Fold this sequence. Notes:
By secondary structure, this protein is mainly β. Helix content is 12%, strand content 47%. Strands 1, 2, 3, 4, 5, 6, 7, 14, 15, 19, 20, 21 and 22 form a 13-stranded mixed sheet that branches. Strands 8, 10, 11, 24, 25, 26, 27, 28, 29, 30, 31, 32 and 33 form a 13-stranded antiparallel sheet that branches. Strands 18-16-17-23 form a 4-stranded mixed sheet, covered by helices on one side. The chain is elongated and about 180 Å long. 17% of the residues are buried.
Amino acid sequence: MLTVTQNNQTEMLNQIQGFEMDEEVNGTLVVKFASFSVLNNPGHILIDERPIFTVDGYDFRLAQLKKNNNRKDVTAASTFYDLVGTRQEAIYGGTHTLNEFASFIFQGTGWTFTNEVPGSRLIPNFGENNVIVLKDALCSAFECEMKIMPNKHVHFAPKIGPDNDAQYRRGHNIKSLAESVDWSKMRTQITGHGANGLVVTYTSPHAGKYGVIVADPITDDEITESSTMLERLKSELVDYPEAYFELDAVELTNKELGERVWLIDEVMGIEYQTRVLSKKTIIRGNKLVTSSVILGTTLPRKNADLLVSQKVEIDENRKEYRSKFTQTNELIHLSVEEVNASIATLELKADNVSISVNNRITQEMAAINVKADNINLSVSNLGTRVSGTESSINIQAGQIQQKVSVYDFNGQTISSLITQDPYAISLMAQNLAFQGLVTVTNLKTPGATIVDGSNVYSSAFVVGRGTGSTLTMTAVAGSHLIQSIDAAGLRIGSNGSMGLSASGAMGVYVPNSNLVAQAGFRVTGGVVDIQVPAYINNASIATENYVGTRIAQLENDIKAWANGKFVAK
């Protein structure tokens, strides 16, 4: 039943007296007994230098030892409290569930846990302490209790022990070994102040019997609803006497630690709920049995009569807000939420700061993300499921980028993008619109291009740069030169008429190339002046001999024609 382990050696303790195991709802768990150096008690010699005692799966480490001849008086505490020497050096602060906090506390300890405490709480700077201190802080924040179980296991609950609605009457079916009743802390009315002007006053039904005794008000800016504040007030108000009873009734000793028991006091005219706050267990016939319990008071009973008679005064703003704070060694995350409306968050890291605001009703979100080498600002409107818009500015040491985009019900995204770096500014958009005087200057060479309304001014225009052929239009010595370089030719086409006009003496001037008319060449209303060799079907005709022969032939033709038409006189 009871064993002792020292230096990996385990032995039975068969000759002991006065064994008591005391357990309280606050987590205390200790054993006391005396062991004797007699035959058939092999473990007695191992009781030295903080051994471990085991009974029914519970482990206890020696805390106090008194020796007297062949007797050793032992006081041992649960090995759970060995964790006072185990520290969690990291930070795990912020808003988390109890499961998350407890997982952080017990990591690497060999202890497991179960939990029935709902919700989450804010505990800033949680960590950097021993496990026992962190456990106490956790139970305080969640207003819960912890029970040490066998086999290195603990259990968290709002209140440990069941509620079987058991009822007992003082002086009738229970008899106390000792009792204490304190009326000094009893109050019957309390007021609470919450966020957004919330004010709730709760009056206990006991005020009808004992009068209105006002308790100090409480203030909690994290409470935004009347129902939440009402529960807080009921938990804070002590509208019953504080009472403690030590009992040895057989029926009560079978109750579990923390179990709720209704106590009816007909003399005082009230009934209130007590709990089994402490149990004393002994060994009887090689079994653990409860020898006595201590009952203590908790909350007033919530039956139908009490609910009918209670008085609640409420003045509130109905908006509900929630906030969350997460803290680890790596980051701090803060968020404030207007429930079902919007949420704002701030996240801080060593290399990153992020701020965002999200309006869930309008589906709009704004965000700022700051890093050592990058700042990003964005605003988005998700709109409906089939459309939305988004804009962002991204700033880096060597580049600034600005983007605006929209997506439609066809799944198409239309964007405009401006990118700036030390060497260039890039514009990308479905349409570019400029208003005012636009000047484009090349910093490497002199000159500029100016766009002024419908006019474009520049000293030269280049088409086809980098494609193997280039078309240039350049102002040269007061004249305009259109030139095709590295190309097969220059073609000017028109589906209608096309005119060439020149007011200078040179007219249309082709200095170094042929002028070719594939469909014929016609001159109307002018003189053809050919000053260079001319060709017909690749044969030279505009030579001096050809012209002289052609003129003589024309003279003969004229004479022959004239002789046929006229008679000499």
